[in-house]
Each structure stands twice: as structure tokens, then as C-alpha cells.
Design goal:
Layout: H1 2-28, H2 33-37, H3 51-59, H4 62-93, H5 99-108, H6 114-128, H7 134-138, H8 145-156, H9 160-168, H10 173-184, H11 186-201, H12 205-210, H13 219-222, E1 227-228, E2 231-232, H14 234-268
Antiparallel strand pairs: 1-2
Amino acid sequence: MIRKTVLYLLLASGAVLTTFPFLWMVTTAFKTLPEAMSPSISLLPQQWQWYNFVETFHAAPFARYFYNSFLVAAVVTTCVILSSLMAGYTFARLDFPGKGVLFGVILATMMVPFEITLIPNFVIIKKLGWYNTYAALIVPWCANAFSIFLMRQGFLGVPGDYFDAAKVDGCGHLRFLAWIAAPLVKPTIITVGLFAFLGSYNALVWPLVITSEDEMRVVQVGLTFFWGAEGVRVNLLMCAATIVILPTVALYSIAQRHFLEGSLGAGIKG
């Protein structure tokens, strides 16, 4: 009984430590600037400033930022799912010379830090004339090694007898992938899509480097608007951050069950 009580206290303490910064962010969004800048940490505002949300959207074109973010994230997610589906199925079910070496090379790219490829990617985008375009925000992220790995692990869990039976009925690889294999790895597909969407939606460095006009900015770059030489407008920054984080929280809440199934499944299939 004592052990269980201690365990619950430790878990509750961890939950409080984890959620407190988010609660502080949300409540600070309703504070005045002097109160938000106060050195004392108070959770609830003295007077709720609901107008902060209106002022936030007036301070910067967040409607345009949200449009760009959702458009880019949606296209990137779709492309990542399609590319990882085909590549994952290929590495899991097809045999061809050099398959193991090629898959190893793809996995090796996961070890290369993003900062190393930032300048080469930027130079390529400039030479293609894609600077300040949606293509620059989308094309470099339409495929990634981690998604291919997850999808391959998912397809390895599909019994080979399914394809043998489908082949007897005249079903080819593409048809088998679309109508049989893909529905069987639905949790993995949702997991890959969730990672792709969150990675694109939360991207900051690449959009900041590859765009310079408000028409092409995304919400994460828009948050930097409240941090200038005159100081940080903490209350409006927290207000904007609260608005920006809502789609990711909602998306994860909806896909949580499939996300856990896909993550656990990728770890136990060899």
C-alpha cells in the first residue's frame, strides 16, 4: 500500500511539473503586459484580458500564417504517407539486388543533423528559383527515412500468405498495397501522418530561412513577431502560442490510440 501511494505521488508530481508550463502559458495569455513581465510567478491573472486574442491577430497577419501552415503541413503529410507507403512496402515485400544496402543508406541519413544540410538545401532552392514559394516549403520534406522505416516495420507484420492468396486471384503489387496491405497497417499510417504533420506544422528554422515575405510566412515564424529590439510582449506571445498549439493538441487527442498502436507495433516487428 505504501509503495503504491509513493508511486502515485511520484506520477502526480511528474504530471504537475509537465503541465504547469502549459497552464502558465494559457493563463499568461489573459494577463496585462506588466503582470506578465512581473518576476513573481502567479498562475491566474488579476483581471482577465480577453482582448489579447483580438490584439494578437491585429498585430500580425496570423490568418495568413495559419493558412500557409495548414496548406504546407497537409501537402507534406500526404506526400510523406504516399512515399513511405510505397518505399516501405518495397523494402518489406520485394526482393531486388542491393536492397539491404539501399535501406541501410536511407537509415544512415537519419544520423545527419538538419543543420548540416541546411545550407546545401538553401543553395539548391535558390538555384531552382523557389525562394519565397510553397515549393520550397514542401518539396524538401515530401519523404524521410524515419517514416519509411516505420512503414516497413508495419508491412513486415502483414502475413505473406495474404499476398500469395491475392496473387492467385490475379492481384498485383499495387492493387494488393492499396486494397489489402494499407488497411492492415492503418495505425502505422496514422502514426506516420501524425509525425509528418507535426514536424511540418512546428517547423521554424527552414521556413524562417527560405521565406522573407509575410505572404509566405507560417505560424511558427509569426511567433517571432512579438520578440523584437524593444523587448518581448510576453502576454501576446503566450496568447499566440496558445492559439498555435491548439491544432496539435486536438490532432494528437484524436489520433492518440492509433499513434500508440503504430509506435508499439514498429518496435516489436523484426
